[in-house]
Amino acid sequence: MARVAYREADVDLMARMMRAEAEGEGVQGMLYVGNVIVNRAVADCLDFSDLRTIEDVIFQVQGGNFSFEAVQKGNVFYQRAREKEKRLARRNLESWRDHPAQFALWYFNPFGPCPPTWYGQPFTGQFKLHCFYEPEAGTCDSVYMG
After folding, report:
1. Tens of pLDDT along the chain (146 residues)?
2. How far is the C-alpha of 107 from the C-alpha of 118, rounded, in Å?
3. If DSSP states are collapsed to H, E and C, what string results for 36-102?
4. What is the reported pTM?
5. β-strand 106-108 against 130-133: which pairing, if any?
């Protein structure tokens, strides 16, 4: 059973986002970004309590800006999804997840070392240039179950 209900249009959106955010970090980096996208769709907490679909996650606006920089800046996100990334997106949607993004709801690419917290949430690990953060214990149990 899939971690979240999805349509082919969701696979396409997610594949485009994974590529736009992490193509330079290879297959593993794109899968980690996919983990965060799916985690946000299953999380029923924090900034993500009203998100239920992949489309909701991709186009979420926080503080007047899209949550994912790639939506705002365009670049690769607005190119056609490729089969390679669609296969990766399906893997995430179905079941694949791994540390450091296994339960992560946030990631970013800092100009320096990864800080120990990001918006009060603990650092779980780094892959190449991206730092990953999961919810503080007890604040978002749904992300650990989905």
Report:
1. 899 999 999 999 999 999 999 999 999 999 999 999 999 999 999 999 999 999 999 999 998 999 998 998 877 888 999 999 999 999 999 999 999 999 999 999 998 999 999 989 999 999 999 999 999 989 999 998 87
2. 9
3. HHHHHHHCCCHHHCCCCCHHHHHCCEECCEECCHHHHHCHHHHCCCCHHHHHHHHHHHHCCCCCCCC
4. 0.96
5. antiparallel
CA dist 66 → 49, 58, 73, 79, 99 (Å)? 16, 8, 10, 18, 25
Neighbouring C-alpha atoms within 13 Å toward the C-beta of 74: 0
Nearest 5°: the CA angle 113, 14, 46 is 60
Partners of 65 in beta bridges = 62
CB-based burial, 113-134: b 16+ in 10 Å, e otherwise? ebeeebeebebbbebeebbbbb
Q: Look-up: residue for tokens 């365009």?
A: 74
Distance of alpha carbon 123 from alpha carbon 114, whole angstroms:
8
